[in-house]
Specification:
It is a single chain. By secondary structure, this protein is α+β, with helices and mostly antiparallel strands. The protein has 3 domains: about 120 residues, Beta Barrel (Lipocalin); about 110 residues, Immunoglobulin-like (Sandwich); about 120 residues, Sandwich (Immunoglobulin-like). Helix content is about 20%, strand content about 40%. It is built from 6 helices and 26 strands. The strands form 5 sheets. It has an 8-stranded antiparallel barrel. Strands 12, 13, 14, 16 and 17 form a 5-stranded antiparallel β-sheet that branches. Strands 21, 22, 23, 25 and 26 form a 5-stranded antiparallel β-sheet that branches.
């Protein structure tokens, strides 16, 4: 549920790194050249076997084909004079269909790039990077197995309220992100399957069995997170030896006849907000072993090295209707710490901070502006949510030096949680209003809105105009 747009880009880069060892080893445990060559040999063997099977099948049917030649010749003659057109089947009013599919061709960025050749290497390894647009105005962005889902409107992809602009030019789709542009080209479900070996899922369609991840050594006590007539979700323990630094191992059992999805999409560690990576499907009547992960490197800025208190936002919903079956916050103590005994690390002091809002419910502080080597012009924020609700922070009607110039930013903050966040400005947008360097920015005006991100009928906690003067 976190509204940071760069998460999906980070997943894309991670997907690319899995095949980058073709020209060098990855520190993230990517495959070596030898492993890739072995996989290619395996694929060649599989294709050879499939070819032999097709040949045998053709031999078995050859006799039947010969006996039907005369009839087919007559049919072809009739078809030449009067072509027969098959009428397309009209989908039911509530049936979801795939309207368009685009696959990645290349990515151009300030520091991170993916050439067409590198993308071909990704595909040669059996991984597809594509976006599928559905008729119900939802989309699926599959980043070589890492899936993000949201809605589309013809100009923007929306991920949990955060809008990502895109543009269609003929058969080309261009998705923009601060400092990066992804170029995609129109494809087909059949082509995607030929790359990945898997069908593109369609909301509401019956999916085949999806194997879960293999079990790893775990520590900690098991806990039942959800247990009802539809599904049982059990936390088996924790693994701190993987590349993420912290993983929760989960088993989900679907007792019903509908496909369900389990999502761990938001979390806090020792009172500070962090990203949880963990969304997986549980087909009807099946058991799936999967889980969630936390990147411990992201918590270093917060002064956290151990996950003593973990609060997660867990949602289970029907993948056909998107109806929520279970939605809750869970508090876990992986190291056995007692409730209330965990000390929340203090925030850092900004080099040029200004307090915009600070009251009993919320805090919004701009710590400082800086030029990031990758993202360009950014402003670092400190946020607090001292309420019992999940809150959304947004900035609207933003001006820079009195001229309209919208940044990329919105953020949800968990209840009773502290968070760092960053406002991203596109350097081209800043140039249009006469800003060439950070020091050129003398004022930023904006409407800061803070509201309950679950109960939208509740009044805003804040909706007011502010001016920041560096």
């Amino acid at each position: 549920m976190k509204k940071r747009m760069f998460v999906w880009l980070a997943l894309l880069l991670a997907a690319m790194m899995m095949v980058m060892p073709l020209s060098g080893c990855s520190k993230d445990g990517g495959k070596t050249t030898e492993e890739t060559e072995e996989e290619e040999a395996t694929r060649r063997t599989r294709r050879s076997r499939e070819s032999r099977e097709e040949t045998e099948s053709e031999t078995e049917t050859e006799t039947e084909t010969e006996t039907e030649t005369e009839t087919e010749t007559e049919t072809e003659t009739e078809s030449e004079t009067e072509p027969e057109t098959e009428k397309p089947t009209r989908p039911a009013a509530d049936e979801v269909t795939i309207e368009a599919v685009y696959k990645m061709v290349r990515m151009e960025g300030e520091e991170n790039n993916a050439t067409e050749e590198q993308v071909k290497q990704i595909e040669a390894a059996g991984m597809a990077v594509y976006v599928a647009f559905y008729s119900n105005r939802t989309f699926r962005f599959d980043l070589a197995g890492n899936v993000l889902e949201g809605t589309w409107d013809g100009t923007h992809l929306t991920l949990d309220g955060q809008k990502i602009p895109y543009e269609q030019k003929g058969d080309e789709l261009i998705i923009t992100e601060p400092g990066d542009v992804i170029y995609m080209i129109r494809s087909t479900p059949e082509e995607i399957k030929s790359i990945s070996g898997e069908d593109i899922p369609v909301p509401g369609a019956s999916q085949g069995e999806q194997p879960g991840s293999s079990a790893a050594p775990v520590s900690g006590d098991a806990a039942v997170l959800v247990d009802n007539e539809e599904i049982t979700v059990t936390l088996n323990g924790y693994d701190t030896t993987g590349i993420w630094g912290f993983e929760g191992k989960v088993t989900a059992v679907n007792h019903g006849s509908k496909p369900l999805r389990v999502s761990f999409s938001e979390g806090t560690v020792n009172g500070w907000q962090t990203e949880l990576y963990g969304t997986f499907d549980v087909p009807a009547g099946q058991t799936v072993d999967d889980g969630f992960a936390i990147d411990m490197d992201e918590l270093k800025e917060c002064g956290i090295t151990s996950v003593d208190e973990l609060v997660v936002y867990l949602r289970v919903y029907d993948t056909d209707s998107y109806d929520t079956l279970e939605e809750k916050f869970l508090t876990l103590y992986p190291t056995g710490a007692a409730a209330g005994s965990v000390t929340v690390p203090e925030r850092r002091t900004g080099s040029a901070e200004q307090v915009i809002v600070e009251n009993d419910d919320i805090t919004f502080i701009i710590l400082e502006g800086e030029v990031d080597d990758f993202w360009g012009t950014v402003y670092n924020l400190y946020l607090e949510n001292n309420t019992d609700s999940l809150l959304m922070y947004t900035m609207d009607d933003v001006t820079v030096n009195g001229q309209a110039c919208d940044p990329y930013w919105a953020c949800t903050v968990m209840p009773h949680t502290r968070a760092y966040s960053r406002i991203y400005y596109d350097d081209d947008d800043l140039a249009e209003v006469g800003v060439e360097k950070l020091e050129d920015i003398t004022s930023i005006g904006f409407t800061l809105r803070v509201y309950d991100d679950i109960n939208w009928d509740q009044p805003d906690l804040l909706n007011d105009v502010f001016t920041y003067q560096p």
